From TrEMBL:
<feature type="signal peptide">
    <location>
        <begin position="1"/>
        <end position="24"/>
    </location>
</feature>
<feature type="domain" description="Laminin G">
    <location>
        <begin position="40"/>
        <end position="215"/>
    </location>
</feature>
<dbReference type="InterPro" id="IPR001791">
    <property type="entry name" value="Laminin_G"/>
</dbReference>
<dbReference type="InterPro" id="IPR051145">
    <property type="entry name" value="GAS-SHBG-PROS"/>
</dbReference>
<keyword id="KW-0325">Glycoprotein</keyword>
<comment type="subunit">
    <text>Homodimer.</text>
</comment>
<keyword id="KW-0732">Signal</keyword>
<dbReference type="GO" id="GO:0005576">
    <property type="term" value="C:extracellular region"/>
</dbReference>
<keyword id="KW-0754">Steroid-binding</keyword>
<comment type="function">
    <text>Functions as an androgen transport protein, but may also be involved in receptor mediated processes. Each dimer binds one molecule of steroid. Specific for 5-alpha-dihydrotestosterone, testosterone, and 17-beta-estradiol. Regulates the plasma metabolic clearance rate of steroid hormones by controlling their plasma concentration.</text>
</comment>
<keyword id="KW-0677">Repeat</keyword>
<keyword id="KW-0964">Secreted</keyword>
<dbReference type="Pfam" id="PF00054">
    <property type="entry name" value="Laminin_G_1"/>
</dbReference>
<dbReference type="GO" id="GO:0005496">
    <property type="term" value="F:steroid binding"/>
</dbReference>
<keyword id="KW-0446">Lipid-binding</keyword>
<protein>
    <recommendedName>
        <fullName>Sex hormone-binding globulin</fullName>
    </recommendedName>
</protein>
<dbReference type="InterPro" id="IPR013320">
    <property type="entry name" value="ConA-like_dom_sf"/>
</dbReference>
Length: 389
């Protein structure tokens, strides 16, 4: 996959349409500047914050724990990200459960042991799955939908010690340095957790967020743009193919979208290229050297950038339209520029709120590889891997 580094994004405002949302986590203040949340609440893990920082967390005295089992339900299309974390001894012994390639990954540190194990079924199918993590003597067991997903055995030559003090739990982040883990991964998770039962404790969890973002009641694969922000990639670090061309492909029902689908420019230069769709007129507008407006019947849009030409292909189930623009420097601008998905780059980009995309892009590819919006600088309202169904 072409690797894109994060670029500097402009400050953007969030306005989510509650009509598209299902239910969320409710909470109240605790007098310490944090809101309290029930452990059984439905929590969207992809809410914007420092990407390694927990979304919600709790601390409990080990003497109050009567069960060494935690269970919860998880739903996601995202193949990678942190689910939950726990530790004792202020982070000396710790446990991390995440997904990588859609498969559960457990990493455990205890005394002189550091263990990493991956296995079980793929969970990023958009369905609710019940996960249960429990400790049985020298074994840590992860059950998925009632069946063993992972079993990790650990035995140390060190003398077992009685552990006292506190235990910390966190959802969507970790409380240790990420460099301590054996397996590195992207932490952001576009997913939801609900119905949590955490070590049979009833103490509330805490969050620093002023408001927890709700979860969509039903979802489908794709990247959802609610009309409040866009994702920016730095294309100057994107390698081009040996034949010196770049191909960008987008799939979706464009007749249900409104706003800017995509734009490209280089710093200090005029807008090189943009695609915009109008849901009222059912038209799509292509901005390059010329401006072309056509009827919007698309299921797929493909843009090919070469040294002195740019080709746009509109395609649905029955027909194809091709538009070619000629001008020197297209590929040079790409190599020096930025790619925005869901918004308009260029002069006045601080004031283009009406141009933000509203709708679901089912798939985005660059050079034939899926583009992961988690690798972009993006507005917190964008869901990288799921759309409301």
């Amino acid at each position: 996959m072409a690797v894109f580094c994060k670029a500097v994004a402009d400050g953007l405002l969030l306005t989510l349409s509650l009509a598209l949302l299902g239910w969320g986590a409710e909470g109240q203040g605790n007098g310490r500047g944090m809101r309290e949340v029930s452990g059984r609440a439905t929590v969207y893990l992809g809410q914007d914050r420092d990407i390694w920082r927990p979304l919600i967390h709790t601390t409990v005295n080990l003497s109050e724990i009567s069960s060494i089992k935690s269970s919860f339900q998880l739903r996601t299309f995202d193949p990678e990200g942190i689910i939950f974390y726990g530790d004792t001894k202020n982070g000396e012994d710790w446990f991390v459960l995440s997904l990588r390639d859609g498969i559960p990954l457990m990493q455990i540190s205890k005394g002189d042991m550091l263990v990493s194990v991956v296995g079980g079924p793929k969970l990023n199918d958009g369905k609710w799955h019940t996960l249960e993590v429990s400790n049985h003597g020298k074994f840590v067991i992860l059950e998925v939908d009632g069946s063993n997903g992972l079993v990790v055995g650990m035995q140390s030559k060190q003398t077992e010690e009685f552990i006292s003090g506190q235990l910390r739990l966190a959802l969507g982040g970790i409380l240790i340095d990420k460099e301590k883990m054996i397996v590195q991964f992207e932490p952001q998770m576009d997913g939801c957790v609900r119905e949590g039962s955490w070590l049979n404790i009833s103490v509330p969890w805490e969050t620093e967020a002023e408001e927890l973002r709700p979860c969509y009641q039903n979802i489908q694969p794709g990247s959802y743009f609610p009309g409040t922000g866009f994702a920016i990639f730095n294309t100057s670090v994107s390698p081009t193919e040996a034949d010196n061309e770049v191909k960008i492909e987008l799939w979706g029902d464009f007749s249900q979208m409104d706003g800017t689908i995509l734009s490209i420019n280089a710093p200090g230069q005029e807008l090189m290229f943009a695609l915009m769709v109008n849901n009222n007129t059912k038209e799509i507008t292509i901005f390059a050297e010329d401006k072309i407006t056509t009827k919007n019947y698309n299921k797929r849009l493909a843009i090919t950038i070469q040294a002195d030409s740019l080709t746009v292909i509109q395609e649905d189930d029955e027909s194809t339209a091709i538009y070619i623009f000629s001008h020197p420097g297209y590929l040079t601008t790409w190599r020096e520029g930025r790619l925005a998905i869901g918004g308009l780059l260029g002069e006045g980009e601080d004031n283009v709120g009406s141009q933000f995309l509203t709708g679901c892009l089912k798939k985005i590819q660059v050079q034939g590889k899926d583009l992961d919006l988690d690798l972009a600088v993006k507005h917190m309202s964008i869901s990288s891997h799921s759309c409301p169904a």
